[in-house]
Amino acid sequence: MQILENTSIQLRALEPQDLKLLYKWENNSEIWEVSHCQKPFSLFVLKQYLENSHLDIYESKQLRLVIEIKENEEPIGLIDLFDFDPFHNRAGIGVLLHDKIHRQKGYASEALETLINYCFKSLQLHQLYCNITTNNQASIDLFCKKGFEITGTKKQWIKGQEGWKDEHFLQLLNPNH
Q1: Where in the sequence is the domain holding 94, given as residue range(s)?
Q2: Rounded CA gap, 69 and 71, in Å?
Q3: Domain tally for the chain?
Q4: Boundaries of each N-acetyltransferase domain copy (predicted)?
Q5: 20 in a structural domain
């Protein structure tokens, strides 16, 4: 098994043909609150992003991978490392399965496990962290299942359509560091 694959999913780099898919996913206003986005992205901006996605994580300080179902290579989501800090050996992590039909099937769990292994074994990171609104129990359960611990709560941190929301800060320390 390759380092960026698991039983039923594989993680791959962004490709130029992902432009329309990114455009659809990034411009879905239903997920903007989770992704901390407040406006749509143009095709031009996303094309530029794709053209620079080949940069090494040490240059760009981020890594975005497409989650695909191994069996048919269907792209179903994205998993990201962001705010990569090589001095402190840490990065933020986020996962998105765009269509609800792909959720609750173990794909996000496998993608998260795969990226955690990559981060701890290949990148030698000391820790990963994520931020999840306190009402997103499915995501909290997903990350806690993989060993993340809630280490803090930011009060009224996210302004949503229904008002202010608290956000948990979760961390996972590399047990071999």
Answers
A1: 9-125
A2: 6
A3: 1
A4: 9-171
A5: yes
